[in-house]
Inverse folding.
């Protein structure tokens, strides 16, 4: 990765240069004092060793840590995060003592200015409590818990008017202080999370830089899922997001194309909402998000899901309901058969699309 910070002005001499923090181009740069002191030359693990150790202690035992990214706002990033959390928490992970266990999921909402996760789970009145182990996340089911800025606000309508440094401080606190696992108690390792899903705001800003650099320094990031819609106005920003991942060496687990089509609930006619004149998400599969194409740690971009727009999904998220329970109650489901993984077989577009997404993601993580 380049030693030029992504938020540095041009031309930047680089953090490893003798002119770092001293050149005329450094005037006004937010990193000037750090560079001039020589601290910027040190890796993050040496600049903030206690923070990195705390992150490792909190997140190191979680099986998979996935960040959700989108270059464009309004493409369904938070909706995808919620559906991933809801759907994976309903899937069977193993059989213990004769009973089927489902995945244990944590969802971290880093969209500080628009924390919509509490609304989508119907728990906007919940508050975060301090325990002996740290901040206790809000549990919506016994195997699904949340942490969001929305739980810290005095009211849902209260705005967050913060500059970057305050956001970075809260990100660090979320990563070091939230007690996602029960490793500090006397319970066994079976209580640890299987997935931590991290929802982020649109773009490539302070929040993204901070969380990625902290997670990478602590070796606690499996990769990113990038979501887009089919139209070119979204794809333009997604290409920037892919380049962001390449520059920061973030493995892209897959691309999800959202709002691909609308299925009429009356006649079942399928209508494409956003005609993909430039190829849609499939055009992204030809991009390399890693300069070294032979590196097995960075496989080619792959579309792991294509999701429809469904009014039931919108209704479920607005009302804080589980979208899959709502879809199943109104779909043509064979009650006598199940898929090998325990999921219901269905002709319902929403259920089938998300089942395919979950299967592809789990397969991607096994590679």
């Amino acid at each position: 990765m380049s030693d030029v910070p992504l938020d540095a002005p041009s031309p930047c001499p680089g953090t490893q240069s003798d002119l770092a923090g001293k050149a005329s181009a450094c005037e006004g740069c937010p990193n000037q004092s750090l560079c001039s002191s020589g601290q910027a030359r040190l890796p993050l693990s040496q600049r903030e060793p206690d923070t990195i150790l705390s992150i490792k202690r909190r997140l190191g035992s979680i099986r998979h840590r996935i960040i959700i990214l989108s270059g464009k706002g309004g493409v369904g990033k938070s909706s995808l995060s919620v559906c991933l959390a809801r759907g994976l928490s309903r899937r069977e992970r193993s059989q213990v003592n004769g009973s089927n266990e489902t995945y244990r999921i944590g969802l971290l909402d880093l969209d500080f200015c628009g924390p919509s996760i509490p609304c989508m789970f119907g728990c906007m009145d919940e508050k975060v409590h301090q325990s002996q182990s740290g901040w206790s996340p809000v549990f919506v089911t016994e195997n699904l818990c949340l942490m969001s800025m929305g739980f810290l606000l005095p009211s849902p309508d209260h705005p967050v008017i913060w500059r970057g440094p305050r956001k970075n401080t809260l990100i660090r606190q979320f990563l070091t202080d939230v007690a996602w696992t029960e490793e500090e108690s006397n319970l066994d390792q079976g209580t640890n999370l299987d997935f931590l899903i991290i929802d982020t705001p649109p773009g490539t800003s302070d929040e993204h830089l901070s969380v990625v650099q902290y997670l990478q320094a602590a070796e606690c990031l499996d990769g990113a899922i990038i979501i887009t819609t089919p139209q070119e106005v979204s794809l333009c920003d997604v290409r920037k997001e892919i380049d962001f991942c390449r520059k920061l060496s973030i493995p892209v687990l897959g691309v999800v194309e959202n709002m691909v089509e609308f299925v009429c609930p009356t006649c079942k006619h399928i209508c494409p909402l956003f005609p993909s004149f430039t190829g849609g998400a499939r055009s992204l599969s030809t991009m390399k998000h890693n300069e070294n194409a032979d590196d097995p740690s960075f496989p080619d971009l792959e579309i792991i899901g294509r999701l429809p727009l469904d009014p039931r999904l919108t209704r479920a998220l607005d009302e804080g309901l589980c979208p899959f329970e709502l879809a199943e109650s109104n779909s043509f489901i064979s009650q006598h058969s199940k898929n090998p993984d325990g999921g219901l077989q269905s002709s319902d577009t929403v259920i089938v699309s998300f089942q395919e997404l979950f299967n592809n993601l789990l397969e991607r993580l096994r590679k």
In short: Confidence is low (pLDDT under 50) at residues 184-190, 332-338, 342-346. DSSP finds eleven helices and 16 strands in the chain. The two ends are 24 Å apart (CA to CA). Residues 10 and 39 are 21 Å apart (CA to CA).
